[in-house]
Amino acid sequence: MLELKNITKIFPGTKALDQVSLTFHPGEIHALLGENGAGKSTLINIICGIYPDYQGTVSLNDKILKLRSYQDALNNGISIVNQEIQTIPDSSVAENIMLDKLERFQKIGKLNWKELNSAAQVYIDQVHLNINASDKVGPLSTAQKQLIQIAKALASETPVLLLDEPTSALTENEATTLFSLLRELTGQGKNLIFVSHKLDEIFELCDKVSVIRDGKWVGTDIIKNLNREDVIKMMIGRECSDEYLGVLNPDKDQIVLEAKDLNLACKVNNASFQLKKGEILGFYGLVGSGRTELAKILIGEDHPESGQIFVKGKKVAIRSMSEALNKYGIGYVSENRKEEGLILDFSVETNIGLTIWEKVRSRFFRKINKTKEDKLVLPLIDKLEIKIASSRQEVKSLSGGNQQKVSIAKWLAADCDILIIDEPTIGVDIGAKEYIHDLIWDLANNQKKSIILISSDLPEMLKLSRRIMVFQNQKIMGTLDDLSGDPKNNEEASLRIGCLMV
Questions:
Q1: Which of 60, 87, 253, 427 has CA 20 to 30 A from 404's CA?
Q2: Domain-located, residue 415
Q3: Crossing angle (nearest 10°) for helices 113-126 and 142-156
Q4: HEC profile of 410-429
């Protein structure tokens, strides 16, 4: 049994946790919920020894733990699967999984690769990864890397396992396989702490729920005693509206972006579409289906082998993201905010200002005019309700949801006419998700921006998009036109999408 008593953690200028007491029992999956910035990550870091300085006690089976590092946590039977991908790309899958156990496979100063690969393959098979232990990690997909992190945690064979947004990069089938594995682990008496913003997952998988809000414990209950509305109200202190957003009226005569027969081997196969002014066009499909791959061509990160791109009727050859932004007014909110969307060691202000440096540089000295930058950046911090102590706070210190808001704010500052938004609500809480949905709707409906929305979240896609293109196996399988967005019609639209994906 893992027990936390009166945990308090103070950072300069803020009390992240205030007298939090929780108990986690073996043989159950216990969900830890809260909005971004509520204190979940801080609590996890304390349990794992990453934050050694705090008030209160952490005990495991009545033994008080004084953890000074993550290695201490491992030695005491606690391991974690992080939301962020933390693999070593130049090393093999086996080395990544057995990183803290390599000495077991050393003989006379040399690694016994056969034994190492054989031991790692057991855990690779457990998470149903179709790769070899000797494969390099670098070229693998984000989903595969996430499963490697889960395999590494399993290899630690600790009685307590924390899972922080473990399905954020996984397909629905991969998540289903993971859930089956986690249930097996509870049968072995493991103590599983599960953090997720996907409430459907919580109700499908977990036995118990605890909620933290503004650094304080709100409540704990058995999942059977709760419904979705109960959990949302505990998390954000109010009911969350998921109502019909209304009619979207794009200008059907103004085609702002068009692709004709785009091809790139193993990524995009004969893709064609038109994007209208003031439209939210959905690209729906699973990871690797061709949606993001097509977006990378549109912003100039990849270059097609054949086909044509038109911006406002003019044929273009976009060679870089900088050209896409500065010459054609196209922005891209990446699904991978950690590696592509943000510079984590830089401040919030610098990250948001990246796209507007050309506008706020001094004409003669080429220095950033801080007054001009602040005038554009600070209102966006307020508008998106980014929780920070200062605009100069490093982005890496923010919660995942606040990092996502910074990533979106960067492109709002650029005032792009065309905005491609890839998985906008991945890793964000229900309140922030509602806010981001309203923001996307406002950009199209009121500001007449043209949006390509890429998402594997079907309810999100049906709520926002009035035209959806379905992707599978790097192809556009078909298009659903004139969708109403009314929740009453979602079942019919879901069936139509399902038919296109069969």
A1: 87
A2: yes
A3: 110
A4: HHHHHCCCEEEEECCCCCCC
In the structure encoding, which two tokens stand for residue 481, read together? 């036109």
pLDDT per residue as tens digits for the range 401-454: 788 889 989 998 988 999 999 998 877 777 778 888 999 999 999 999 999 999
Across 119-203, the runs of DSSP E, i.e. the strands, are 160-164, 191-195
Q: Which residue has the tokens 């069969």?
A: 502
CA distance 5 to 159: 20
Q: Which residues, in sequence order, are CB contacts of 255 under 8 Å at separation 6+? A: 274, 275, 276, 310, 312, 313
Tokens of 362: 């001094």
Opening angle at CA 433, ends 438 and 453, nearest 5: 65
Question: For 97, left (φ over 0), alpha (ψ -120 to 50), or beta?
Answer: alpha
Domain that holds residue 384: 251-501
Exposure b/e, 191-202, CB count within 10 A at least 16 = b: bbbbbbbbbebb
Instruction: Tell me the CA distances in angstroms from 172 to 4, 360, 374, 396, 469, one per residue in order.
Output: 33, 44, 42, 28, 19
Answer yes or no: do 205 and 112 share one domain. yes
Rama region for 276: left / alpha / beta (φ>0; ψ in -120 to 50; rest): beta
Same domain, 289 and 355: yes
The secondary structure of residue 1, as a DSSP letter, is -
Position 239 confidence tier, pLDDT thresholds 50, 70, 90: low
Highest mean pLDDT among 43-47, 80-84, 178-182, 384-388: 43-47
